[in-house]
Amino acid sequence: MVSILAITHVIVSNGFVTSGKTLVDLERDITAFKEKNDDLRQQIASASALLTIEQKAKELGFEKSTATVFIPSRLPVAFGATR
Amino acid sequence: MWRVTIVFCLIGVWFVLILCRLFYWQVISYGKLATEASNQHYYKLTLPASRGEILSSDTTPLVLNQAAFLVYAEPKKIVDKKRFVRDVATILEQEEQVIEDRISVQDAMWVPIDRKVDKEKADKLMEKNLPGLGFEKIGKRFYPEASMAAQLLGFVASDESGEDKGYFGIEGKYDRELRGRSGFLVQEKDARGAPILLGEEERIAPEDGRNLVLWLDKTVQQIVQNNLRSGMEKYGAKEGAVVVMNPKNGALLALASEPSYDPRNFLQYPKEVYKNPVVAGAYEPGSTFKALIMAAALNEDVIKADTKFDESGPVQMADYVIRTWDSKYHGEITMSEVLQYSSNVGMLFVGQKLGQDKILKYISDFGFGALTNIDVEEEVTPSLRLANKWLPIDLATATFGQGIAVTPIQMTRAVGALANEGKLMEPRVVKKIIDPKGKTIDVKPKITRSVISKEAAQIITDMMVTAVSSGEAKWAKPKGYQVAGKTGTAQIPVAGHYDDEKTIASFIGFAPADNPAFVMLVTLREPSSSQWGSETAAPLFFAIAKELFVHLGIPPTE
């Protein structure tokens, strides 16, 4: 019984000790994913920045609206529900 | 016998030598050996904390972090010095001589080459695989909106110990919240360097900095910046500033000033532009101040909107003659018309009705001479004279905004009180603070005090609406909107007297007058096209207001 336990102890301890490398690999992967996420977040922020959108809009020929029409919240009778 | 003595002496000397050697290893070299042993047995790592992000009111980022590197050299490990210098200088875009000087420091084990090197350049250097060149990962600020609101946000630079520190603006004021706390890891490792899970481990997790959500609306900021730049060009102004605040809660929606700087390359700009002139720059408010003195007189019930005053000519005060700005006199006019014509002599009448003690009380109650407590680092306040140091002429000129210095944020806040039923708010830039676990702290609006009654606020609002719709700047007002406002043109004091040509033109107002969504101040320093606020700052104010009405979805009411 003692020898079985001793052997089990050695095997389990050995497993624990050697899994250190796996842990390092996992932590390296986590760091790489975090870096990738940060990169993507930066790219999204740059692409959706007002500055970028304004520039793209100009390139595509959009112009600032000079005549804004406000529609009143109460619709005229002609647009109301028919009976 | 002598042979025994010699052997005995030799053994004694040998014993002393051993003792010396032991002393060397165990005492003198203790520190070095302990470190080497520790390095062999333990895996040590500093776990850096990420600096908090700064977000706009719609939670899109204004300031983020990006990967960057500290590039350093270990001169003793460099194999080919010439190649090292050439490759590093080319990629880092530096002079070869600078790199050579750095790595030629005698007996240096480690020398920094460049800080905050971006990932792209660092990757190129890593590809070169140069012996003696090392990299340490550090954070760097990234600004997706480039230099937007630079003077409000501030920047990050190294302090005396080489650590990142926020300077000016939000970065400076909230440095402790943003910077977080670095952690560290000490773990036993095996011969291959992999951690031993059953071994000793000491880990203190890093605490990332908190994120800040601002009240700043990016679209409003963009509108303000674009208009300010084009307005300064159009009117030939040397400097300019615009502040947009929600008068109901003190939330700062936009703040722009020119000249400004790019926080990515702040070292390339003169230090004078680092400070935000809206909170750290003083100016004489000129006629915009009349609205506040008039509000005080209405609140004290010493005048009414229709109180008559005979504007018959200049008024003599001690050795001085007070005139109207255009030397025109309109005879019998009401208090509304005093504001409309921006009458200096009319304001003398209001000042006399109010009296010295009340004028000083209201100047103080409107927040002048004290910090507004806006949450940016560099706020200052021009001090007011002591009550017993005010001469009658000082009080007289103060009624029309001369001889008194204020900051743009103080002025915006004071007029904001007129738009907020008389309640003076503390200006706020930060709306929420979010910790790394997602816990949110809402920064509540704070009422400093109630300065005037709701009724007095309503009357002064109506008078300011008339001043806009019938005053000098009526041509620029957007059609269909009720805007309460006042123009101002203050001469600039130079070497003890007022310069005849140099002025600070300003316009302050709020809209829509019946339910204000914003209070805005526009100041232009030394405009060359015209020195008058009604011809420079006022049209710029209305150009911005027109765009704000569309963005904020405010329909016309007239």
> What is the tally of beta strands of chain A?
0
Distance between the termini of chain B: 128 Å
SS strand fraction of chain B: 15-25%
Helix fraction of chain B? Answer: 25-40%
Distance between the termini of chain A: 92 Å
| Topology of chain A as a string of helices (H) and strands (E) | HH
The count of DSSP E runs of length 2 or more, i.e. the number of strands of chain B, is 23
For the report, how would you describe the main beta sheet of chain A?
none
Uncertain runs of chain B: none
Task: Provide a descriptive summary of the structure in words.
The complex is a heterodimer of chains A (83) and B (558). Chain A is 67% helix and 0% strand. Chain A has two helices and no strands. Chain B has 18 helices and 23 strands. The N and C termini of chain B lie far apart (128 Å). Chain B is an alpha+beta fold.
Concise description?
Chain A is mainly alpha-helical. Chain A is 67% helix and 0% strand.
What keyword list fits this structure?
heterodimer, A: 83 residues, mainly alpha, 2 helices, B: 558 residues, alpha+beta, 7-stranded mixed sheet, 5-stranded antiparallel sheet, 35% helix
